[in-house]
Amino acid sequence: MSTELTTTVSVVGAPAQAREVLIDSLRDFRQSGAAPVQATNDGQLMALWLHGRSKDTQRAYGADIKAFMEYAGVELRLVTLGDVHGFADFIKTLPNGEARADKSQARMIAAVRSLLSFASKIGYIGFNVGAAMRQPKVKTTIAERILSEGDTIRMLALETNPRNRALLYAFYDLGARVSEVVGLKWKDVRTDGETAIVTIYGKGSKTRFNRLSATTWQHLQAIKPAACTPDTPVFASRKGDAAITQRQAGRIVLAAAERAGISQAVSSHWLRHAHASHALAHGAGIVEIAEQLGHSSVAVTQVYAHIAPGQSTSRYLSI
C-alpha cells in the first residue's frame, strides 16, 4: 500500500473495514481516469450530504431520510421509483391516522429527492430515480398566519416580563427567524446613537445587518446585565448562563398571544410574517423587505404583495 494512498484515505475518514475498498477504488481511478469513490455506504453518503447544513436542517432532513429508508427497507442503491412513489403515498397520513400537513409532506419528498440527486452526482448510484418524481405543490397559507397590527401591538404591550417583552419586540422588529434571535449575543448588537444595528448570521450561512427601532433598543438595554461579556447571550435563561432555547421562545410567544386574546397557535414565525406584511402596507419595498428577512430571492418575499389587504384589481371595477 502506498503512503500517498494511505494518507488520502485517512483524510476521507473512512471506517477501517472500508479502507481497503477505498484504496482499491483510488488505485483504479488513477489507472482508468474514472471518478474516485466518495462513499461506500448509506451512512457515509448521508454524512457528506448533510455536511455544512444548519443543525435544524440536519435534524429535520435526517429524520425524513430515516423514515424513507425504513419504508423502503433496502440500501439506497436498490431504491426504485416505485419506492419513492409508495413513500409519497405512505406519508400522507400520520401514525395516528390523521392527515399529515401538505407542507410536511413536501419537505419530506424534497429531502428524498435532494439526497438521490446528490447520490447521483457523486456517482454513488447509477440512476437518479428521484428526478422522475414531481415535487408536490403546497398551498400558500401565510395569509392565515399573519397577525393584524392591533393584535401584534397588544401582544407586545401586555407582556410584563422585561426579557420576554424585549424578545417579542426583537422578533417583530427584526423579522428574524427564531434560531437567529435566540442565538444573538451582545457582540452582535452595536449601538448607533439612539438605536443599534444587529448582526444576524442566518440561514444559508449569510450575514445581514438589521437596524433596531429606538423602542426595541430601549427594551434590550433594559435587560443587558452589568457584568456582560461579548459572548453573553442577549436572551439568557433564568440562570443567566445560557441562551433560552427555541422551545422556550415559542412558549413565550404563545403565552403572549393567549394573553392578547388570540385563539390561534401563534409562533415566532407569525411575528416574522407580521413584520413583512405590515412593513409592506406602510410602503416598504419588496427588495428592502427581502434583505431584512434574509430571503434567498425576492420571489420568496413577493408572496406578501399577493396577500396584502386591499391590494386587488377589483378596485378597478365599476361595482
Explain the overall architecture.
- With 319 residues, this protein is mostly helical.
- The chain has two domains: 38-132, DNA polymerase, domain 1 (Orthogonal Bundle); 143-308, hpI Integrase, Chain A.
- It is built from 15 helices and three strands.
- The protein has a three-stranded antiparallel sheet.
- Helix 1 packs across helix 2, helix 7 packs antiparallel against helix 8 and helix 7 packs across helix 11 (246-259).
- It is elongated.
What's the gist of this structure?
With 319 residues, the protein is mainly alpha-helical. It has helices spanning 3-12, 16-32, 42-50, 55-72, 81-90, 102-121, 149-158, 162-174, 178-182, 214-223, 246-259, 268-281, 286-293, 298-301, 303-307; strands at 189-192, 195-202, 206-211.
> Could you give me the name of the CATH homologous superfamily of the largest domain?
Intergrase catalytic core
What percentage of residues falls in helices of 4 or more residues? 40-55%
The assigned CATH architecture of the largest domain is Orthogonal Bundle
The total domain count is: 2
Radius of gyration over all CA atoms, rounded: 25 Å
